[in-house]
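User: Can you help me understand a structure? I only have the sequence.
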Amino acid sequence: MKTEPAKRGIHYGFIIVACCCLMMGVNVGLTFSCAGIFYRPVSESLGIAVGEFGIYMSVMYVTSTLMLPLAGNMLEKYSSRWLFTLSSALMGVTFVGMGLADKVWEFYIAGGILGVTLAFLLYLSFPTLVNRWFRTKVGLMIGICSAASGIGGMIFNPIAGLMITDWGWRWAYGMFGAIILVIVTPLLAILLRDRPSDKGLLPYGANMKVSGEGKGADPMQGAKNPDGVSYATALRSPLFYLLILFAFIMMGTSTLNLFIPGYISDNGFSVEQASLAAAAVMGGVTVGKLVLGWINDRNCRVGVIVTTLFGIVGLGILIAGYSGFLFLLCGAFLFGWAYAGVTVQTAMLTRSVFGARDYARIYSNISIALAAGGAVASGGWGLLADGTSSQFIFTCGMICLGICLLIGLWSLRKRTTV
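Assistant: Let's start by predicting it. Here is the structure, written out as tokens:
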């Protein structure tokens, strides 16, 4: 099919971004951002420890880790439109099933199914689609899509708290599943398209790359031979493995978000106040992703410093500020900036170190470390907290963020030697 630059009006790439925001804000927002608010009520209802229940999140991360290589191959061979739509439908059915579960092992099975869907909806959805549909403003679009999960958390955490209080956790799970099945899944089926050529278009900004090159210039020329190192070269660089460690630790630290609502409740605050603290984290995630995107367009080093130091300060406030709820909200908000760094800072650090030449292939490998970090930490923190305290695991999180700060700065300093 012949492709041509977009005419006046909204480029369809922005509709694709809206679909990505829907997947991140609703599907991912409900699965990750709202998970913590269910920990205590479900654990108490089933008569088990919070750490034992939280293992379902580890199962989810492990399944995502194992599924990612296959999911990447499937996206090259089959329609991303239908893969994302079917993943959304399967996620909705799984949420409904969680509302009917009576045994903890049933949640482990649900976690495995959710992990399969998240390999598509979280790790590969917006990076794949944005890179297909955009040649300019790629970082901004990635930041917007990524920030949508925080907005979803801000919206749905208070709703979840109210539903759990008034109707119980089973109805809350069921309602969230219905939202995914009735609203998100049909919209993805209707609006998503695989590539710009499906709409007879070039990627957004492709024609802008050739300003001043003449009437006969190839509008895709600006996308050819981008700066950066090859995938093979990256694999031979120690920096590649340092960034894998960076991604692993950042993701593992971000899962402390799951334990903030329980920590708030343990210090004498209500379920509604705990849900507000969870929403404050998501507020920090949302603001952090947008601001970090803006910062990284100018200086990636500053982005690394901001995301890690804000997270360290936030966790410190949570440890020290248990006597004042507003103080706790401030700590939760600042910790959200570290959470934001999982997607935005990891992606931008990878691009800054290795360039754009084989970025998608390099980052797909690093994203496996994100899933692995969540798999180890989400259940591991819970088991550690059961044996120690929330303050102890928050302190460990501060140390982890300090290590990420050093890795990020060192990688940026040594990137010229790649």
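Now, to help you interpret it: The chain has 16 helices and no strands. The longest helix spans residues 325-354. Let me know which part you'd like to focus on.
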